[in-house]
Amino acid sequence: MLSIKNLTVSVGDKQILKGINLEIKAGEIHAIMGPNGSGKSTLSHILSGKGGYEVTGGAVTYQGKDLLEMPPEIRAREGVFLAFQYPVEIAGVSNIYLLKAALNSVRKYHGLSEVDAMDFLTLIKEKVRLLEMDEKFLYRAVNEGFSGGEKKRNEILQMAILEPKLCILDETDSGLDIDALKVVSEGVNSLRSPDRAFIMVTHYQRLLDYIKPDYVHVLAHGQIVKSGGAELALELEEKGYSWVEAA
Amino acid sequence: MNAIAKNQQTWLQALRSDALTQFAAQGFPSPRAEEWRYTNVSAIEKKRFLPVSDAQTAVDVTDILTAYQLKEAWSLVLVDGCFHADLSLLDGLPEAVAVMSMANALDSEAETLQRTLGQAVSAMEHGFVAFNTAHFTDGLFVRIAAKQVLTKPIQVLHIATQADSLTATRTVIIAETMAAVELVETFVGIDNSYLSAAVTEVFVEDNAAVTLTKVQCEADKAYHFGGTYVKQARNARFTHHNFAFGSLLARCDIHSDLEDAAECELNGLYLGAKRQHLDNHTRIHHNKPHGISRELYKGILDDRARGVFQGRVIVAEDAQKTDSTMNNRNLLLSADAEADTKPQLEIYADDVKCGHGVTVGQLDDKSIFYLQSRAIDEETARNMLTFAFANEMVNKINIPALHDLVLAEVLKRFPQQGIEQDLL
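Above: the input entities. Below: the structure tokens describing the complete assembly.
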């Protein structure tokens, strides 16, 4: 589904990613772990199309297409979803408004008609229940005044509605208490499917207790320094990042 | 402008004569005056605006009434500055409420007007108030008796139909002790160049509450000079929503004087495009302790439009424990658009909580990217965010029919792509 080959990325004069190679197949869950400043967030931003970065080399192929050529909204319509580390507050736009606009935008791209109002409400209520959210959130401005946990649930709600193929979760566990972490993880787990892949970017192993990855990659100084199975995360937790950084 | 000629009261003659003298001496304001430094009105002196004469043909205003006359409201319609009973809807008013044209009120409410007209603002304020006081032809008079709470809003709909016309209207609103009322002033015109000068005085007595919404949708080539001057007694609450959408050049003054524990909320939204110049000038004067004021003005300026916000909050030495915030936010959509903003706090008391903030900027890149990452293209994202910026102010309106009217005016001025009307 996703193939990253020798990707190098800079911000200004500073090289952040120094040759990333990664192959992700449908149905897989990959965790990308690493210390602060290792380039984890840069990788998720690059995949979702955020501006301010310069790709200096390498290629990213998503479902056979050049991902880096696509504007962010086309990536989203093609099924790439980024759950933000810091979801943006958008005053004056209600959650339900954004969800409907986003869903219709994806449907239109795939040649489908706009979602029926009643079907949409049914769908949205089902997903809201799944994430144990209050329906009132739907009518509040996007993320405005939401707590950290509410913002993260809201990201997963959007993901559940848009049903993307490649889900990138950027530090989704940060700022979550244990209850919220469980709910968010259950939400993510309910979306696992053979035709959907996940990239979970995280500093801590904690999230991986709830969402079990197939592969764990350790990013340090802009490169993947170690890859392994779920057990690698536990090893990291025990030994700390200095163990792999030194390697 | 003969409607009031029959009112021969000497107090009114004296008031008008003083105002005329004042106007002769000072003329219209010049940019040399600090409170007019961003707005040059000399263009109107080069034009020949004249009062509408009886000889001019009546224009059919049915479409305007359909679009702008509120349902579920009492409404009073002024065409070219004069009251039209046939177009107005004033049936079923409670007895304790007086709603009538200013011309009628000068007869039947003379005593009340003698002690109120010109008391919230004097002809000394500036040339337009002097001019208005000397020449007003008609307007609205509202008096809500003590403890009356009106179930429906009262609207005054000003319609300008004649090219190169000049209208001066005066409104006096009195909410007696513990009364509550919502009022709407709507200004519209047929596509012409004309000048409309309107002065409104509001008296909110002890514990009374007045909400006044001004919807200025004058024609594109019109000049609009409007002033709202408010006296708030002890515990009085006054809320003003100021929507400045129309006119080539518009200036709006909102001033309020607050006594003990009075609360004042001023909201504003100005949308400028092409070469529009929209000036809003507010002054909140806390005279006594425990007053609260909340002010938020937002502007969206496109093309070569210019928006001006001058907001003054004055806290007198005696006005301890005043709690006041003032914010002005401007969104510039074009490199040639301009926003001039000048918040001023003048604090003479020592135990107060006062804050102000100002922003002038473009849409936030982070928000645009967030929406793009949710499959929404950049142009639609920009439209959504721009609309949302404005919609925050529209959503402050509690009257459903008025909310919809203002929303329709906002949408008219926005690209429609990406606006999901059924979810607004």
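Note for the figure: Chain A has a mean pLDDT of 91.
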